[in-house]
Amino acid sequence: MSDQRNERPDIQLLRELEPVVEENINRHLRMRKDWNPHDYIPWSDGKNFYALGGKEWSPEESKLSEVAQTAMVQNLLTEDNLPSYHREIAMNFTMDGPWGWWVNRWTAEENRHGIALRDYLLVTRAIDPVELETVRLEQVTRGFSPGQNQQGDLFAESLFDSVIYVTFQELATRVSHRNTGKACNESVADQLLGRISADENLHMIFYRDISAAGIDIAPNQAMHSLHRVLRNFKMPGFTVPEFRRKAVIIAVGGVYDPRIHLDDVVMPVLKKWRIFEREDFTGEAARLRDDLGALVEELEEACVKFEVAKERRLERERQVAEKKARKNLLVSSSAAG
User: Fold this and answer.
1) CA distance readout (Å), 95 to 5, 83, 86, 88, 213
2) Whole-model pTM?
3) So where does Fe cation 2 get bound (predicted)?
């Protein structure tokens, strides 16, 4: 029998949280609503591609705007990296007891999202299927670690970092899916993404409440994890090829931007955990809590700067569109004359 007194603090914390995990699993099973991916796919719209006697995809077949296409593909490619996410939480949470049961259950539920999104996009011919498969292979080959930033440096030091990280990540993913559904301006896509975002919300609640229990048990240790996660936070989709360009399109389109990240993701969780009201952070942890206050101010400044840049970009696009419209009008007038 191992001596639990010699365990690392983060492993001790995960062990102490096992009863809370079991309690939250039971709540999750009561709250969840079963659904089937095939019910949200307009199969009657489908037709064969070239290999089976049909025709290959062409851009004019897509009924989605550039913003909707970009966001849908970004969301799908993020979901496609599920093997990496499963590996990460399996290694960090272990596969024993209630933690192990949750790892497998969470993976099974998350797997539906990629299945449904891909079926929808291919059946409705909303995107280039060849390009999608090419990027999927590259994305999954790159993998993902929540403790890795865009430079490939590792910032994760505690297993509990993963619990904190997925709290914010699941909420961010829920918001992104929901807003993408609205951007599609198509009822089936909106219903599908609404169903997926409901799953993400339940997953977020699970991790959020496990994290809350961890903060109560070991506030200073949890604060170190929280600070590392928020100071280095990146969405799991940052490994998608051309992520920066796609992120700009998605942000300008109002699907996920700095204001949404701050107001709909970061602040609701910090308020739920009462981070700036608690008095049980001491020493270095108290200093890190104060730095989170500074981070919130930095994020607020980033929101203001983004809005200015967004308006400039939209104005440029309006000017280009007006110039193109005038040119087309002149061409039409000349042809008529």
Assistant:
1) 21, 15, 11, 11, 20
2) 0.88
3) 110, 170, 200, 203
